[in-house]
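Work through this protein:
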Amino acid sequence: MAGQLEQLLAKAQQPTTVAVIAALLIVAITTRLLTGAPESGSKGAHTAAQPGYYVPFLGHVPQMSLNGDSFLAGLREKYPQGIVSLLFMGKTHSIVYKPSLATLLMNKPHSVADESFVSKRLCVTNFGFKKSDLDLFQAFWDEVGKAYNIMLSGEGLANLVETTAKSLQSSIADFVTFNAYPSDQAEWERMAEADVVDHNGEQYVEAELMGLSKNFVAQTANPALMGTDFCKNFPEHPKYVWDFDAGFVLMAMGLPSWLPWWPLQRAQASKRRQLNCLYEYHEALGKWSKGEEPGHRWENLDDISILQKERVRIWEKHEVPTSVRAAADLGLVWAMNANSSPLVYWMLLHIYKDTVLLEQIREEIAPYIKGVQPKNLFGTGISIPPKLETFDIEGLSTKCPLLKSSYVETLRLYVSAWSIKYVQQDTTLGRGDDTYVLNEGTYAHAPHDLHQLDPKYFPEPHEWQPRRHVKEVMGEDGKITVTADMGSIRPYGGGAHMCKGRAFAMRELMMYTAAIVTMYDIRRPEGQEWSVPKTTKQAASRHPTKEMKVWIKRRPQPDEE
């Protein structure tokens, strides 16, 4: 070891090495001195300020790679005007974080600022499209996009919500089954390594909270979208989604698939497995749509969602190859699961951590959700679990401001949406003297979590505060109504491409949280306290860096009448 160190020191002292190091330092210092520009323009449109950088062409890539969150937060404090210009790989990128400017950016028409290039890139890098498939897909791209509006309101949204609620109502008793053997457990329990423990004469199920909650949501909500056959035939599918999501950003970067990086390799393998599942699914759907026999594994395809039925109609109309249908559904299934299912974990963690808040939420939701203990007609040898008798989803969504504020606060703190647009013609953001130029051929970004964690808008921004979004609103009749809303945060993006699943996601998160809070007590194992783990940012949301085991038991419910 000492000999190797001496050799390295000797090489470092060689004239050539010293000259190279000196040259690199000179380049870095010179670049830093010559780059960086303050905001320019005295009246009318301004050019956004650009901080200096050290490496030509790379620009600010090193700072973003080392600690992007900290770098951007520092720029937010240094440049309070709400927009700054950065250089990435020789290209200008405007970072927009003032809410009013971000809203203007999101509402720019496609002809001025286009975001579809991101979707098309992800289709190839992440979802399994070939570049040649995009030419085919382009012919009906808008038609597929319009189909998503089914999820926003009306019959399509009602169908998704009602079907999910029925599935949750029938499954909540098995959130934990108290079966010690994995073969007798529900799929979500096995994925969370559930086990039965006894403590002071009471029986609990010990499980990893993130694994249990997100897989329970996925396994019981996905049938509303994909149909019961898909979820029955591929019970392991949610695990593929989580592995895929963990490597999503790496794939989006266009890294070669052979690179020996475990998260990337695992994500690529999960992508292939999902495409295989979806290919079989769409082969069956194609036959079903023509009135043909799809096979014994696919006997209940009538219960797919209205959205899926519309997508199948589009595929058949344009004679889309099965491989392209599978790739398109991979994007749909990823978005529906990765964006919302893990957030139930964060809501449960913060609500159960605060015993006062827990009781307040239980009191608030009590008129809209009620559990009962069914009569046991089989004797003491058989245990009958409680069930949900009352389940008013609209009441939970519209008349429970504390629960809704908790939902909004969870989005604010744990969703990291980032909108990107390519500027296709010169345009401006702002009004009057606070107007900024976006030049043709540049990129504009709205990192929404940069605003969501801004202390000027949200005091103590890294703290989860459940009442932060509760408001009192006076109606036309003079009566004051307590409510909660999104305010200035945009966790689902903005503009025409705002997430079409947002209306369903809100109801989904609130119904699952309310059901679990009503039916179960959750605590930390003996000798352990509740704590909020550190997080890591994935494509759609923040995830805990370490697992959290909890003890779960059923809450006593009033006897069924």
Q: What stands out?
A: The chain has two domains: 14-113+420-449, 140-417+453-554. Residues 14-113+420-449 form one domain. The chain has a mean pLDDT of 91.
